[in-house]
From TrEMBL:
Its EC number is 3.1.2.-. This is Acyl-CoA thioesterase. The lineage of its organism: Bacteria, Bacillati, Bacillota, Bacilli, Bacillales. InterPro entries: Acyl-CoA_thioesterase_PaaI, HotDog_dom_sf, PAAI_dom, Thioestr_dom. It comes from Aeribacillus alveayuensis. NCBIfam families: unchar_dom_1 (TIGR00369).
């Protein structure tokens, strides 16, 4: 990383970080939209379509997980430093319904030089559908092109 601290790096390279996160091919394929990004924090939305349903007619757990995983990745990579997931635990509480918009929020709980911990909630109409806890390994490399400050 250059001479900026992580918060300053986020602020200086915010547009580049957001652009890179919005280029995620799988998230784009699913229709996930990044709606907010701060240091260690991300929100995204996804509208459930009929092809995302399971045999019970509700949102497939993999789709809900994908949305949670996306905000986990966005929040943990929000500093411009490459972070890769090493562990997640997901609990599903309520079904997602076709046509409904799901909103996922990831909040950093603790971060150090090599690891960071996140709490993620997925909601629809203020109804909690799932929670996820995740841990990332923080590499020393950047995932965006940045000039030395």
């Amino acid at each position: 990383m250059n001479n900026l601290d992580e918060k300053s790096f986020h602020q200086t390279y915010y547009e580049e970080i957001v652009k890179k996160l919005k280029e995620d091919p799988y998230a784009s394929f699913l229709g996930i939209q990044l709606t907010e990004l701060k240091e260690g924090y991300a929100q995204a939305e996804l509208t459930i379509q009929d092809h995302m349903l399971n045999v019970h007619g509700t949102a497939h757990g993999a789709v809900i997980f994908a949305l949670a995983d996306y905000v986990f990745a966005a929040a943990s990579n929000s500093y411009g430093k490459t972070a890769v997931g090493i562990s997640t635990t997901t609990s599903f509480m309520n079904p997602g319904i076709s046509g409904s918009t799901l909103k996922a929020t990831a909040v950093e709980q603790k971060r150090n030089r090599k690891l960071a911990w996140y709490q993620i909630h997925v909601e629809s109409n203020k109804n909690l559908l799932a929670t996820m806890e995740g841990i990332v390994y923080r590499k020393s490399s950047l995932f965006i092109d940045a000039e030395e400050a």
